[in-house]
Amino acid sequence: MTQLVIGQLLNGVIVGTLYGIIALGVTLTFGLTGVVNFALGAFMMLGAYATWYLYDVVGFPYPVAVIGAVVVVSIFGYVSDLALFRFTRGNLVNGLLVSIGMISVFEALVLAAFTTTPKDLTYVLPGALKVAGIVLPKIKVAVAAVFLAVILGTYLALTRTWLGRAAFAYAQNPEAAALMGIRTGRLQTIVVVYSTALAGLGGGLYASMYSIEPTIGSAYVLKAVEAAILAGVGSVLGALGGGIILGISENIGSVFFSSAFRDAYGLVFLILILLVRPGGLFGDRS
Amino acid sequence: MKHAILVGLLLALAVPAFIHSDSVLAIAVYGFMAASLAVSFNLIFGFTGQLSMFHAASFGVSAYVVTILVTTFGWNFWLAIVPALAIVVILSLIVGTICFRFKLKEFYFAVVTLAFSEVLRLITLNWNSITNGSLGITIVDTPKIWTPSGTFAIAGGVAWYYLTLALLVVVYGVCSRVLKSWIGRCLAAIRLNDQLGETLGIDVFKYKLLGFAIGSGLAGLVGAFYGFYAGFVEPHFLSISLGLDIIAMVLLGGVNSLIGPVVGALVLTALPHVIELSAELRIALYGSILIFVILVMPKGIVGLLTSRKHAA
Amino acid sequence: MLLDVKSLTKRFGGLTAVSNVAFGIERGEIIGIFGPNGSGKTTTLSLIAGILKPTSGVILWKGNDISTLSPFEVAQQGLVKTFQNPQLFPELTVVEHMRIACHLHIKRELGINRLRTLIGGMPVGLDRLLEQKIDQVLALCRLSSQRNEQAAALSYGGEKMLGVAMGMLCEPELLLLDEPASGLGHDEIANLDAVLRDLKSHGVTLCIIDHKVGFLGRLADRSIALHHGAVIASGKTSDVLADESVVAAYLGKKHA
Amino acid sequence: MSRLTWARSMLDVSNLSVSYGKQKVIREVSFKLEKGEVVTLIGPNAAGKSTTLRTLAGLKKSDRGTIHLAGKDITESSTVDRVRAGLVLVPEGRQIFTKLSVQENLIIGAYHRADRDHASADLERIFSMFPRLRERRDQKAGSMSGGEQQMLAIGRGLMSRPTLMLLDEPTLGLAPIIIEELGRIVRNLAHEGLTILLAEQNAMMALGCADRAYVLQSGRIVTSGNAKELSETTEVKQMYLSA
Amino acid sequence: EDVVKIGQIEALTGATATYGWMSAQGTKVAVEEINAKGGFKVGDRTYKLELQQVDTRGEPREATVQFRKMMEEKVHFVFGPFLTNVFNAIEPIANQNNGKFLLFAGATSAHAALGKPDHDYLLRTWNWDAGSAGFGKLMVDYLKKLNTRKVAMLFQNDAFGKTAVDIYSALLKDAGIELQVELFEPGTKDFSAVLAKLAAGKPDILFPGYSDAVLYDIVRQSTESGFGNRFFLVRGSIGPALKNKDAIEDYIAYVPKYFEGAEKTEPKVRAFIESYQKLFKREFPYDQAPLCSSSCYDHVYMLVEAMQKAGTVDDVAKIRAALMSMTYEGMWRIKYDKTGEAVFGFDVVHVRKGGAIERVPYDPTKE
Ligand SMILES: Nc1ncnc2c1ncn2[C@@H]1O[C@H](COP(=O)(O)OP(=O)(O)OP(=O)(O)O)[C@@H](O)[C@H]1O
Ligand SMILES: Nc1ncnc2c1ncn2[C@@H]1O[C@H](COP(=O)(O)OP(=O)(O)OP(=O)(O)O)[C@@H](O)[C@H]1O
Ligand SMILES: CC(C)C[C@H](N)C(=O)O
Ligand SMILES: [Mg+2]
Ligand SMILES: [Mg+2]
Questions:
Q1: C148 has a chain D CB within 8 A of its CB
Q2: Do the chains contact at B22 and E71, CB–CB below 8 Å?
Q3: Is A229 within 8 Å of A267 (Cβ atoms)?
Q4: Cα(E140)–Cα(E177) distance, integer angstroms
Q5: Would you tell me how many other CB atoms lie within 10 Å of the CB of residue E206?
Q6: How many CA atoms lie within 13 A of E46 on its CB side?
Q7: What is the mean pLDDT of residues B56-71?
Q8: Chains A, C in contact: 3+ Cβ pairs under 8 A?
Q9: Alpha-carbon gap, residue B82 to B217, rounded angstroms
Q10: Which DSSP string corresponds to C3-35?
Q11: How many separate helices (H) and strands (E) can be counted in chain D?
Q12: What count of Cα atoms within 13 Å lies in the side-chain half-sphere of residue E126?
């Protein structure tokens, strides 16, 4: 029993890092452009398909395929910012609608190119690590490690660099930020593209763990929004923490109670946390 | 604007005289119900500033309660609406009290209401003995109304057309009365600056809750009818995607008006049936239209037509 | 005693913003609060208005402790506070602000009968009366010409006056004003002075914070001065302003 | 004035007109600032002082007219480019970053500077100007009192080492003793070569520390001249100095 | 030129689209082939087929509107729906149109409606899991032969999942096999927790959900983390087994036809695959397509044959009678039983460690 619980605890952490990486994108985009980009799920899906295509069809080595996918998705992100999100900045409501529209468009693109038949990437890193009776698939451990590294790197970059300072400042008061000489438009573009790149990376690594279909993104973006909120919008490490809390509560909940209520376990947790801290676990109490 | 709405209503009344297509009437019926949902949602969202994700739950719970009372316990349809609405209102008061007492705002509020809504959906989905789980419940009864010349079963497109049009008028009317009253002003104050509102003597908690409960209750009213027209209820009624659809309708039509959501709902309900293309192109076009409309008309369709902002 | 504040203390973490403050306000007077920046003036008024909850102490309003009430309950009891940083309802016009500010009036007037207005609409008489009152207050506050403009289009001074105007429409017994004159020009200050004296003559009690010593000095019957959260002087305004510690901490040599 | 006549003005505004929608707020306003000068723009409420400053900072588009900064036409430049060229606005109503600490607010002021990583000396300078800020360096800026926030906004503006600083009602909410101090600070800064444009209601303080003054009324400059002389004129005395 | 309209009502996009999409492709191949050959003759007239395919996105409400529209447009032959919830939603409207058209439904729940009054329109094209001729019984017998004592069922919590759990719990109970059930939310990708939980109950074999997407994930995660390596399923393909061939112990699947094998031995299958590739210009999706696309393909041909036998293209009663009395020899041999349930042959494929495949053909039409 303890092995079962510990194993699922760890698995929860791993699954949580995936929520976390998308949540980071959600949090950053929201903080800086005032838009909850639901399309990040679709970007993640694009990343997964691009990776599959580059790796399984074209035959690039996996890391190259993932990097390629991140580049492709970033380009999509850049174009979407240029053509769409630039016009919805600071407008939560319209940004939401545009991102919902984009989900349909991306889904259609992928359907037209690859059909609804699920794709399953050739295994990149088969096998599992066995420690003290706990079995963890190697690929999951590797993926989680990459996500952790990226999130921590982002955290350091945001807290230690001027770009990060500018971002925080902008998020609070765009006009004052401009008065400080912060190129706000460029900053927003960088953040939008970076967030989509994170989603692309999420998708690229996702593809090595799970089968992919055109609709995979929607579930993850919801989880990511939940994680971001649970943590408190704007908190980088919080996005990770929120993701992990969700991941663990779902996995542990499914072990002890019916798995049919899997999604509910994280949500109940979320409600409880927000009741104690209405601004999110890591956010300010407002 | 007022005249345009009246003309629209008159036209709507005349439609069944000219159009006999069952499928068109069906789109209209679903459109009216979607519009009712969107109008009631906008009371909470557009006019009070609370992005509730609980609307689908209010709708779905009521649909289920009415259905279960009628099909399992043999209640009269009209009678069953009463407890259904009571339950929805009580649920929304509970959820609202929790959220507003703890001062959850904006996206925090959205996600917590979404969480409650999902929990309710999962309960509906898994409470097999009462709700028949994922299969949902098939409804064969039809609501009847009593007229001096005998009872009349509401069956067929035309009857439902008028019934749901009346439903829309009722929902619209209630929202409009509420918004024009002092309550509407309190709601606007809450939406725009609740701290200021509070120092002006407005019980922010009470009015937030009131707006939320009225909106949710109206959604429940729609739910009561919906299942009986569709012929079934299923757990999907409580799904997030329905909530997102409603948001899209409201935004597309225009948040700052009462009529906007009606327009948005009718357009979005009809749109998929109007686009006759291959499946992929169809959803691509649907998405593109959403994007395009909002970029060209950032205030929604009605927002573009009327430049004057909503007044307190 | 209309309002009686006793040993009021407010701590933010390690910082004591308001420390053991005590003072009373009699019906019909104008009381001034002076003090250097960060001395706890705004915090004190926020505590009275229910916006902040005191760490300790009591606030007696007509003999009842109101320190645990919410802001709206305090307002309903007849105590209304304006904001130091103008607070507005963005998007709404000036007159729409005023209508919202009529909330308490309508509530007092109609009570539960408000429900009837859901069907029948507002009683015509009341409606007309309110509109008249709104016009009157707008005129007093020199906002008539901007009646239908969005509040966001007001200049800073205009925003401040709108705050005062809304406070007046609440018909408070005690109006707490947080720096009403800051950002106002000479003319406007003179006008404000007149408006406030007029209010006083209609029986409204006023408690005012301001750094415009000339303005508040002339207006206030009695004053208190705060420093580091504590009362350092109180009494007749002229005495307070002449107090050595007040001069040293607040006024500086020029005013000495 | 001791400046060489051929030197370009620090700021040269000519025929500036600004409107909100159809409403004209600034009409054909022209004025100049020489390097190291303190110039004040006084006028009653709604005269258009803030609007003028916001237009100079590039936050508001002008209808007509030109703005030259040290000889360079910046009429069409973005706010950021103006900041980078040395023009900084300390906006009305403070506009601080409420969730950042006092110190973080100040540091971000140095954002556009090439030597921004070495701004700690300036930080010290600001702290000695406004000791209250040093005391509260780790407090969240949003929870500071009104006057404290005003000090912060001014300090933050100074952190960017501007060559031209626009102050919009800096005395707003400040205690008399601090206003007095602010007057000294402004003079000192000018002494160090900073050019300052001061929009003020508080004509007493403004005229007290400015070299020259312009009086703005309903969007027009109605009087201008030496600050000291102006403060002697009975009209100005009556209008502005008795508060 | 005369046309016969065929409608098809399926989810072509969205989360539940896999089956509907592939059904639609099979129908399309058949229709295109028939039209390319110049149509078909009934009596002395030549007809072409006109195919209307609508996308329900898996939403019952959409389907009801679309179905109404088809009825208005006098479409006499409607293929689909494959999804139980969609079928349940359109059933009442279909009943009102009884006698005016034929519905070739695939949904499991359609089984229960067969032969009821008002249901003369209903034929069920895919009898895989219910009824006496259904495959469930056979599969359970197979398990019994393998000495299975306990089965773990892991199904998606949707309308079909519930139906399937009901069917199989009864069958397994009759066979005296213990059953452990867990349901998962649609869209689930990480089955680790639920698999760990099931594994703790020590079942002999896992009976996982029905779509290829979840099969790939479940088989991989189950074997990789050591939760179990024996699988039994009545749907989907053997793709997951082959992909994890060294990690599985047994993988017993009902596959209507093992296409990769059949392709080599059966010219009709070969022709179908080629036709598919030519029409859609892409690889043939072996994973799930055989299940639905080939079946729809056959049923279109069968319908055409029935029209020719009945000598009419619009007298649906006659055409139905012709369908019920014939045996069609296509990729499959197909008959209908007296309720309108399709009876046809299929394969039990047993994949063992290393990838060895044993195939047991089964043909109830011969009995
Ligand atoms: N929420 C808070 N958290 C921490 N400190 C606070 C908070 N609110 C106020 N303070 C501090 O308490 C002190 C008193 O603040 P207050 O706003 O009452 O001052 P004030 O007398 O109104 O000053 P001013 O004249 O500048 O408006 C200040 O030093 C301020 O920084
Ligand atoms: N955003 C806006 N939209 C429309 N009109 C505006 C806007 N902002 C300011 N105005 C108008 O422009 C005029 C000048 O305003 P401005 O804020 O520049 O005055 P000011 O001189 O700074 O006054 P104060 O001393 O009160 O701050 C005022 O009449 C004001 O109502
Ligand atoms: C995907 C399929 C297995 C669906 C199933 N036939 C149903 O009835 O819903
Ligand atoms: Mg203050
Ligand atoms: Mg100004």
A1: no
A2: yes
A3: no
A4: 9
A5: 24
A6: 7
A7: 97
A8: no
A9: 11
A10: EEEEEEEEEETTEEEEEEEEEEE-TT-EEEEE-
A11: 10, 10
A12: 29
User: Which class for C114: exposed (0-12), middle (13-18), buried (19 or more C-beta within 10 A)?
Assistant: middle
Structural domain spans, chain B: 21-234
E84 lines ligand 3 (CB under 6 A): yes
- Alpha helices, DSSP H, located in chain D: 49-57, 79-84, 102-108, 120-129, 131-135, 146-159, 176-191, 203-209, 227-232, 234-240
Quickly state the pLDDT bin for E291 (edges 50, 70, 90).
confident
CATH 3.40.50.10420 fits C86-170, yes or no: no
Asked if D207 and D201 count as a contact pair (C-beta separation under 8 A), the reply is no
Burial class (CB in 10 A: 0-12, 13-18, 19+), A146: middle
Mean pLDDT, residues B262-271 taken together:
94
Select from C224, C248, C226, C254 the least CA-distant residue to C237: C224
Number of other CB atoms surrounding residue D187 within 10 Å: 15
Q: How far apart are CA D28 and CA C161, in angstroms?
A: 29
Task: Kindly determine whether residue C156 and residue D92, on different chains, have CB atoms separated by under 8 Å.
Answer: yes
pLDDT in tens, E16-64: 888 898 899 999 999 999 999 999 999 889 999 999 999 998 899 999 9
By the 8 A CB rule, do E178 and E169 touch? no
Q: How many CB atoms lie within 10 A of CB E355?
A: 15
b/e burial code for range C219-243 (CB count within 10 A of at least 16 → b): bbebbbbbbebbbbbbeebeebbeb
Mutate to test the pocket of ligand 3, among E18, E160, E163 (most ligand atoms within 8 A of CB): E160
Contact E295, E346 (CB under 8 A): no
Which residue type sits at C104? L
d(CA E18, CA D186): 73
Angle between helix E159-174 and helix E84-96 axes, rounded to 10 deg: 100
* Separation CA B302–CA B70 (nearest Å): 39
Give SS3 for E188: coil
Residue B269 CA to residue B267 CA, distance in Å, equals: 6
**Per-residue DSSP letter, E291:** I
Cis omega (within 30 of 0) on the bond before E81?
Answer: yes
C107–B193 C-beta distance less than 8 A? no
Q: Measure the CA–CA gap between E335 and E311, rounded to whole angstroms.
A: 19
Alpha carbon distance A95, A93 (integer Å): 5
**C1-77+171-255, which class in CATH?**
alpha beta
Long-range contacts of A137-146 (CB under 8 A, 24+ apart): A137/A209, A137/E221, A137/E224, A137/E225, A139/A208, A139/A209, A140/A11, A140/A14, A140/A209, A141/A14, A143/A14, A143/A17, A143/A18, A143/A205, A143/A206, A143/A208, A143/A209, A144/A13, A144/A14, A144/A17, A144/A18, A146/A201, A146/A205
- Which of ligand 3's atoms lies nearest the C-alpha of E19? 1
**Extents of the domains making up chain C:** 1-77+171-255, 86-170
pLDDT confidence of residue B250 = 92
Q: Which of A169, A181, A183 sits opposite D100 (nearest CB)?
A: A169
C9 C-alpha vs ligand 4 centroid, how far in Å?
A: 16
Mean pLDDT, rounded, for C125-146: 90
Sheet with C230-236, side-by-side order of all strands = C79-81, C174-178, C205-209, C30-34, C222-227, C230-236
Name chain D's partners: 3 or more CB pairs within 8 A. A, C
E94-134 pLDDT, tens digit per residue, is 999 999 999 999 888 888 899 898 999 999 987 766 655 56
Single out the residue of D242, D211, D239 nearest to residue D40, CA to CA: D211
pTM for the model: 0.91
| Distance set, CA E228 to CA A125, E152, E224, E356 (Å) | 20, 10, 9, 19
pLDDT digits over A185-232, tens only? 888 899 999 999 999 999 999 999 999 999 899 889 999 999 998 888
